[in-house]
Amino acid sequence: MTDVHHHVHDPIARAVIESAADAIVAVDQRHRVTVWNPAAERMFGWTAEEMVGRVPPIVPDELKAEHNAVQERLLTRRAGEGESGQISIATRRFHQDGHLIDVRIDTSLLKDPGGTPLGWVGVYHPVEDDEIVQHHMAERARLVRRLNDIVADLNAELDLAVVLDRITAALIELTGADAGGFVRIEGERLRLVSMSGLPEHMRGTSAELRPSLVGELLRSGKTVKLATGERRLGDLVWSELDGLHTVALGLSYLQNRPYGALYALFSGRKVGHMELELLELLAGHAGVAVGNAVAYAEVVRQRAHERAVIDSSADGIAVLDHDLVVRQWNPAAHTLTGIPPEDALGRPLPFAMPALGEMLTFPLESGTWLNVLAAEIEETGELVVDFRDVSEAKALEEAKDLFLATTSHELRTPITVVQGFASTLVNRWDELADPDRRTAVATIAERAQSLARLVEHLLLGSRAGADELAVTIEPFDLTRVLEGVVGGFRSLSPLHRVELEIAPDLPPAQGDPMATDIVLGQLLENAFKYSPNGGTVWVRARAEGPDVIVTVVDEGIGIAPGDHDRIFERFVQGEAGDRRRFGGIGLGLYIVKRLTEAQGGTISAHPGRPYSDAFHTKSRKVGSGVTTISDGGGPTPRTHIRKSVATGHDTTPPGEGTCMRLALRRA
């Protein structure tokens, strides 16, 4: 029993359909069966009750593109073009038992009286050894073979630009289109990324997605579309092709999302269902090929990114394979170990490797201390060994240990003396003569002052390390600060003499006068301390460009080569062997540097010999308390004021000495 009576109202038409020898199947625009006559039941094995209202499962997957192409072509045909109202093809369809039937299908578009499409109707003729059918199937086999070759070629290519160009070229070869192109969907816009048969200036052209043919195709839910008519052919820039009369396009998907569309442009030959079928198939395969190329490009990008991260890492990084042979060796690994990549790759790791998840710390032969950590890449089974230079941290750790030991010693000595003399005064006050009591009290006061200075250094060092040094930036009279500091040191040591030279045109400095007082005091204290045999200490101030320069030069033991920068670090006091001789905790010059930098200035250390020699060769005695200094190189010597403990006394510095150069910004 068929369902013709429910859908065909004219009794004669119903009778014709029911008595027709050929299978007649009608579907609506959603491809659901509306008519399934008795001949269709006999041909395909399903009853009308089973089929009406369903999408018939008779089209093989490999022929669905052909089926869609026929229906799309019928929808886009225009009246007056001399074409018949139906398309006839030889193809195959499924029987209910699963075997394929060779059939010829005459497909027509169903319309209502007003011309609105209602669906399609197909008349199915069984065929046996029809030459046309055989030719059709042979031609299809040829195209399928060629398509397979093209697809294999596309899938083997991993460069995205090349893939897109080959897709476009294959489209023209298979469909005979006059031109073609591939547009990529980029958000709400389309961009032409590949083309053939079109002017080169069109490459990269973009257009809005929504009003375009691609936008229409996306909204339709289909994968292939034909467009004709002058009004519709202005889509994107295709109108530049002379004589353009038909545009066919198919969607390409990447990870189930529309990636772009493949266009075939026809200005000469007419478009058949075969061309549409090939376009749809090729667009589908294009999505796969593009997906491969995009995935490969992402892998290359990710590897390049990982390589860039590894190469730019400050840590040494080595990647080892299953046999524990080095396969990657980054620049930092070369720098830390001194081993170039060509000597490291393909060989075992040049040092001991810790257990996975554990850290190992050890020194290299060069003296560099390394922290080494190893981890496994579960996906590949490779090992990543990360190692970093911790020599500075190791040195700081040792310096802290030495600092604690030194501080303990520095504290113990004055405390022991104070305790001893205080105990003596308490227990033997009446037995001691007045001069002895005064001597004991003076010793206690001196040692208490040493303790106060030590505590002040500890507090300043702690604040400097935490960036909590508060200074005031304002113009101040540097001459006055210099005279006050130098005046305070003149009476401290009978072995040392201080000479102060100030340029008469010395401008005010910009900074903090109290912080500068501490800096200069520490520099003079160091000059005295590291000149155990006495001698002259020269303090000189002058303007130099945008700065005011103060130099403090002594005749002491000097600084070991390589230590001129290091002495400004925490807990560093020149060579370790000098600690017992000179004492101290190694914070003085660190505080000097931080206080100077807080004011926007700089401090540096230099050998003192060239500076002290310059004082002797450029000066001559002109009277009590005043010396003229010739800077040399100019016709008119500049005059400076020198104030010294013993004016006119001149000795040649016996040692290398040290020059401290303090630069502050002028106000």
Automatic annotation (TrEMBL):
<dbReference type="InterPro" id="IPR005467">
    <property type="entry name" value="His_kinase_dom"/>
</dbReference>
<dbReference type="InterPro" id="IPR004358">
    <property type="entry name" value="Sig_transdc_His_kin-like_C"/>
</dbReference>
<dbReference type="InterPro" id="IPR003018">
    <property type="entry name" value="GAF"/>
</dbReference>
<dbReference type="InterPro" id="IPR000014">
    <property type="entry name" value="PAS"/>
</dbReference>
<dbReference type="InterPro" id="IPR036890">
    <property type="entry name" value="HATPase_C_sf"/>
</dbReference>
<protein>
    <recommendedName>
        <fullName>Sensor-like histidine kinase SenX3</fullName>
        <ecNumber>2.7.13.3</ecNumber>
    </recommendedName>
</protein>
<keyword id="KW-0808">Transferase</keyword>
<dbReference type="InterPro" id="IPR003661">
    <property type="entry name" value="HisK_dim/P_dom"/>
</dbReference>
<dbReference type="InterPro" id="IPR036097">
    <property type="entry name" value="HisK_dim/P_sf"/>
</dbReference>
<dbReference type="InterPro" id="IPR029016">
    <property type="entry name" value="GAF-like_dom_sf"/>
</dbReference>
<dbReference type="InterPro" id="IPR050351">
    <property type="entry name" value="BphY/WalK/GraS-like"/>
</dbReference>
<feature type="domain" description="Histidine kinase">
    <location>
        <begin position="406"/>
        <end position="604"/>
    </location>
</feature>
<feature type="domain" description="PAS">
    <location>
        <begin position="14"/>
        <end position="54"/>
    </location>
</feature>
<dbReference type="Pfam" id="PF02518">
    <property type="entry name" value="HATPase_c"/>
</dbReference>
<keyword id="KW-0812">Transmembrane</keyword>
<dbReference type="Pfam" id="PF00512">
    <property type="entry name" value="HisKA"/>
</dbReference>
<keyword id="KW-0067">ATP-binding</keyword>
<keyword id="KW-0547">Nucleotide-binding</keyword>
<keyword id="KW-0902">Two-component regulatory system</keyword>
<dbReference type="InterPro" id="IPR035965">
    <property type="entry name" value="PAS-like_dom_sf"/>
</dbReference>
<dbReference type="Pfam" id="PF13185">
    <property type="entry name" value="GAF_2"/>
</dbReference>
<dbReference type="InterPro" id="IPR013767">
    <property type="entry name" value="PAS_fold"/>
</dbReference>
<keyword id="KW-0472">Membrane</keyword>
<keyword id="KW-0597">Phosphoprotein</keyword>
<feature type="region of interest" description="Disordered">
    <location>
        <begin position="603"/>
        <end position="639"/>
    </location>
</feature>
<keyword id="KW-1133">Transmembrane helix</keyword>
<keyword id="KW-0418">Kinase</keyword>
<feature type="domain" description="PAS">
    <location>
        <begin position="302"/>
        <end position="347"/>
    </location>
</feature>
<dbReference type="Pfam" id="PF00989">
    <property type="entry name" value="PAS"/>
</dbReference>
<dbReference type="InterPro" id="IPR003594">
    <property type="entry name" value="HATPase_dom"/>
</dbReference>
